[in-house]
Write the structure tokens for this entry.
Amino acid sequence: MNPVTLGWAGIFRLGLVQTALGAIVVLTTSVMNRVMVVEYALPAMLPGLLVALKDVLQLTRPHVGYGSDKGGRRTPWILGGMLILALGGTGAAVGTAIMSTSPAVGVAITVLAFVMIGLGVGAAGTTLLVLLARHVDVGRRPAAASIVWMMMIAGFALTAGVAGHFLDPYSPARLVEVTATVAALAMLVTVVALHGLESGLAPAQPDTASAPDTAPPRFLAALAEVWQERDARRFTVFVLVSMLAYGAQDLILEPFAGKVFGMTPGASTQLSGVQHGGVLLGMLVVALSGSLFARSRRVALRAWTVGGCVASALALGGIALSAAVAPAWPLHLNVFALGVANGVFAVSAIASMMTLAGEGRARREGLRMGLWGAAQAIAMGLGVFLGALAVDVAARVLIEPAAAYAVVFGLEGFLFLVAAGLGLTFASSESGVAPQQSSGCRGMTVIQELGGR
């Protein structure tokens, strides 16, 4: 095994870290959200603002990536980020528990805790992706991205089920106990999974300028250098547009099923489960096809990314059309297809991110990954908000809820088509193009590959 390369065992170990990260996050965004709104009868806007605060703090990701580039090691950043996240998750539980008796004090503690959660997720998540991007072979990247993200989703599901069992009957003290236990276990899993992992790989050289005695450029100068790279800049725009479309569907699908198809809360929740099942299948498809990327130029990672965007647009178009013929439309099948398309798009975009991070100026992987991670988080949060807002605005203009939802789903599909077009504009070494080739040559190679030559 090449000492630079992570094997499947190493990829699985990093997946365990992502599982631990997801275990803490799901408690803060799901359980505590419900407790604030249902048990304490607080405005739903409060947990919404807390989650938005967490997303805004993802703007620190470029700084984190730049810092890890300067030092050349990622493990300390992952461990530090997970520690901050674990303390923030536990602090959020403490603040939520205090809200039952002292709302103002509890909210103040919870705000500070969500600041820590945002910083922790940004630090651990960014540097984990950089570690994958730097040390996973090109042919394994689609499978690696699928494995890591599927393990994170497994962390969501496992924690929600187990923690939900131990939270009944609910009490503020039990919430703190369960959250602290999950956070401690997550930290333990992270430490064990990372132990000796990076030391067995070829170390990344700390960032230096061209002259050995010259100090590395400051953050803004380094960011400007990355932004001047055509592929880095275009991929940032692609991430913004595609994740805006991806996030906009998040809060409106279940209400749509209830208002237009007359589904009960239980039935609409099951519909969400159907979508998540499709997402997992889409990720699995990309993972199983990973070996093809190293063997066939025609099966390009870019084709999966663009194809996932186009398929997502078609599925959203079907849901938009379903509003006119409900309840006769096969909504479950349509939503499952949307999930598959979203899964293919999401994991192939992550794999593209891992590939493009290593291109351009040397030793800027962390900064590029941080830039794209910040774009993803901000676009996702903005998409969730704008999707719900667009439904409200369309409902006022169009009166009929079905027509309002149809317009919004149609707009989301259009955004995915725009993202697909943008996906054709960036190049990566997945296509087998040598880094020294010009932009024009790389663009022609992309077109030839997608056209099957």
